[in-house]
Every structure is written in C-alpha cells, then in structure tokens.
Design a protein that fits this description.
α7 (200-208) packs across α8. The protein is an alpha/beta fold and 327 residues long. It has helices at residues 24-38, 61-65, 82-94, 110-120, 122-130, 150-158, 200-208, 219-233, 237-242, 246-251, 259-280, 292-304; strands at residues 43-49, 70-75, 99-101, 138-144, 163-164, 177-179, 184-187, 191-192. The protein is built from 12 helices and 8 strands. It binds guanosine-5'-diphosphate and magnesium ion.
C-alpha cells in the first residue's frame, strides 16, 4: 500500500513493498539512507509487529540509533495476544525502554504516542526553554522492517493535516515533513530496515506476519510452524477452526519447548496438522489427496487476518500463561 506518505524509500519496490530481497547492497543503501535521515531528527519511532515483538526488531537498530531517543511501537496489537503484549511492555519498561502497543487500523493510540514522544523529549525541551527558546518543534521519523504498518501508522499519526514544506525555520528546502500536531513534525519517508535472517525460528515468525516474502521460506514449512505453534500455545483453537484432533496430533511428536525441539516438531506435528486441516476443510486434489498448497494459503490467510484469534509468536523470556515472569 502506498499511503499519502508516499513511497517508503527509493529502495522500496513499488506497491509490493514486501517484495524485497535483502542483499548486502540493499542493506548498505538502507543503512546510508537511515543515517542521513537520522541526522535530521530528534527522535525515532521504531515500528515493530506486536505478534512478533522480538523477531520484528531490526538486529542493528541499537547500533544505528546510537543515542538517539526512541520509542518502540508494537503495531497491529489488535492481532496480537493482549497478555503477551502486556508482558512485553512490562519487560521493556524494566529495561528502561518505552514500548507502546498500537492499532493503526483504527488509530486509537495516536494520542498516547504523541504524549510519549513529548515525554521522551521533555529534558531537551526544558533545556531549550531555559535558553529562551519559546517553541521548539520536535522532529521525528518512523523506522521499521517491511509490512509492520509504517505507512498506515504515519497516515494515522498525521491525520489530514497538510505537509509541512517551504520556508519554515529548521526545515531544509526539499525535505518532506508532515505535521503531527503543534509540537511535532514527522519525516514523510519512513526508514526501511532489513529483517533478521540469522535464526530459523525468526525467519518463520517474519514469514508468518508477512515481513519476508512467502517464497523465501517454503510455504508448507511456514504453515506447519504456525500450526505447531498454535497447538502448543493456544490449545483448542485448531480443533475449533479446523476440527483438528489436537490430542492425537500432539501425541505424534516428542515433547519439550526448546528451539531445537520446536524445529524438529514442525515435521512430526506441524505438517501432519497441515495435512489434517487440508482434509477437514476440503482442500483436496482430484482423487482425494490433501491439497497442501491450498491448505497453506488458507492457514496463512487465516492467521494474517486474525481469524485464528489473537496470537503472538514471540514471548518474553520465562513468559507464563498468567503473564508473570518466572525466575
Ligand atoms: N490489523 C492491522 N493491520 C494493520 C495495522 N497497521 C497496518 N496494517 C495493515 O498491514 C499492511 C501493511 O501496512 P503498511 O502500512 O503498508 O506497512 P509498511 O510496509 O510498514 O509501510 C496493510 O495491509 C495494512 O492495512 C494494524 O495496526 N492492525
Ligand atoms: Mg509502506
């Protein structure tokens, strides 16, 4: 989607902005564009996907931002498990990082985010005031990996206000800024960051939420990962939605929750679940065999549209069902 905020960056390829292969050259270019833009702003809003709080963070963001003030917005919170989101908010607060959940589909969280930006800048603003500056406009920008909702978020934050251009102090000719409110302006091109590729589970999470192309990882693997994860963490959902026999599927794999075990269980539990879902939902080839391609599309579409309920793929370390951390 290309919103009124325009193209995300020069390297974003047309409409299908998920449609990017991240070669080292692309990363170098994104890094250069980001650092150019960073020099123009006071603060950064890092957008991540609330369903994948850990996986959807850019691996280099801390190094890239240096000491630039930042808030992290966990967008698409309407699709995420609220208890998990809440646990992440607490965990980040414990580390001194402001994580705010948001639903840019409705824009209900805009006020909260404006307030957070002003709080983030409060020291700098009071220093400016002491030095006699009457009003200082906070300059900020949005950054994030593909498909986390950057364009949608910017449109929500800026509403219908006109673009800030032309001859106002602090705004260089040619730069495109959008007015958020009386005190904040926003660079109109979000910084496009590259996703993590360093870990297989992260890859599955990012593919599940649509931040990396569906054909980078085999779709059947992604769908099997999702079904396994839902069986393990949201019991009852798949018996309800796809009439799966969860007990017998779970009995097919070894138990345990470590990352290695999870990966091996994609084959022993996840894939059989995908085949069963295909059969139960009538995704069949001529002759009656399961049509895995159609089942993949069904599972991925259902998950992405929230039809399987509010599901979070990442959890804070030591997360337990009640949302409390264990020692
Ligand atoms: N459910 C939900 N969908 C969202 C939200 N924010 C964005 N989207 C959808 O996510 C998709 C990607 O959004 P877009 O703004 O283009 O992401 P970008 O690639 O980061 O600029 C679009 O289909 C949006 O409608 C949100 O908070 N909730
Ligand atoms: Mg965009």
């Amino acid at each position: 989607m290309i919103g009124r905020a325009g193209m995300d960056t020069q390297i974003e390829s047309g409409r299908a902005n998920v449609n990017i292969q991240w070669f080292p050259g692309h990363m170098a270019k994104a890094r250069r564009l980001l650092s150019e833009n960073l020099s123009k702003v006071d603060a950064v809003v890092e957008l991540i996907d609330a369903r994948a709080v850990t996986s959807s963070q850019n691996p280099e963001i801390d190094r890239l931002l240096k000491n630039k003030p930042r808030i992290i917005v966990a967008n698409k919170a309407d699709l995420a498990d609220p208890a998990v989101t809440e646990a992440f908010v607490k965990e980040y607060a414990g580390r001194g990082i402001r994580l705010i959940s948001a639903d840019s589909r409705t824009g209900a969280d805009v006020k909260k985010i404006k307030t957070a930006i002003m709080e983030l800048m409060s020291e700098k603003l009071s220093r400016k005031k002491e030095r006699g500056m009457r009003q200082y406009t906070v300059k900020t920008m949005v950054a994030g990996i593909p498909n986390v909702g950057k364009s949608t978020f910017i449109n929500r934050l800026c509403g219908r206000t006109a673009a800030v251009t032309g001859d106002r102090p602090g705004v260089t000719r040619g730069e495109q800024w959008l007015r958020v409110d009386d005190s904040i302006i926003l660079l109109d091109t979000p910084g496009l960051l590259w996703p993590k590729f360093d870990d297989q589970r992260i890859g599955y999470c990012l593919a599940s939420v649509g931040s990396i192309k569906d054909d980078v990882i085999d779709r059947a693997e992604i769908a099997s990962f999702l079904l396994l994860y839902i069986l393990d963490n949201y019991p009852g959902v798949l018996s309800d939605k796809y009439s799966l026999d969860e007990g017998s599927l779970m009995a097919g794999g070894n138990s345990g929750t470590g990352d290695g075990v999870i990966l091996s269980r994609i084959g022993t539990v996840g894939y059989p679940a995908l085949e069963a879902a295909a059969v139960k939902r009538g995704c069949l080839r001529k002759g009656g065999a399961a049509d895995i391609d159609r089942a993949c599309a069904m599972v991925l579409d259902d998950f992405r549209a929230g039809k399987l309920g509010r599901i979070s793929l990442d959890r804070p370390e030591n997360y337990e069902e009640n949302g409390e951390k264990t020692e």
